[in-house]
Amino acid sequence: MRIIGFDYGSVRIGVAISDSSAIIALPKGYINAEPRKTCIENIKELCSETGTEQIVVGLPKHMNGDEGESAKAARIFGAAIVEATNLPVDFLDERLTTVSANKILTEGNMKAPAKKEKIDSIAAAIILQNYLDMKSL
Fold it and tell me: Which of 19, 38, 65, 130 has the lowest CB atom count within 10 Å?
């Protein structure tokens, strides 16, 4: 079973994909969030090409657990994916995943310009790996 994870952002959407056994999450770059129609078409094509059966979208909650405007936008994004792909979409709390991704890249001595290219997909991989780990329990 192939699962794709997304780290939703208003500019870029980080992408990660699981191995065919849905055990390991691998970063897969990012998709530009705008124009929205092109973004959703790119996601639909990616899902088709990879044989995706499930999608998980990071849900950016406030530190107190409340959902704000970013979470609302992520839910709208998830609904657009469901409409375009007819695939199930789950949401997973993504608090601090970008912080964790930044730490991973910093510890790997990655310089700022290269970090910008990788951080979204690393955050998506963290979201997806957390989801995979929860499902295996």
Answer: 65
Sheet strands (E) in the chain: 2-7, 12-18, 25-32, 52-59, 89-93
Q: Residue 118 is encoded by which pair of tokens?
A: 């990788």
For a pLDDT cut of 70, what percent of the chain falls above it? 88
Query: What is the Cα–Cα distance from 124 to 65, expressed in whole angstroms?
Result: 20
Query: What is this structure's pTM?
Result: 0.89
Angle at 69 between CA 3 and CA 58, to 5 degrees: 15
CATH class of the 2-136 domain in this structure: alpha beta
Measured in degrees and rounded to the nearest 5, phi and psi for residue 7 equal -105, 100
- The answer to whether 26 and 78 are in contact (CB under 8 A) is no
User: For residue 57, what is the DSSP state?
Assistant: E
CB 90 within 8 A of CB 52: no
Instruction: Delimit the domains of the chain by residue range.
Output: 2-136
Given a contact cutoff of 8 angstroms between Cβ atoms, the answer to whether 14 and 32 are in contact is: no
- In the sheet that holds 12-18, the strands lie side by side as 25-32, 12-18, 2-7, 52-59, 89-93
Mean of per-residue pLDDT scores for the chain: 90
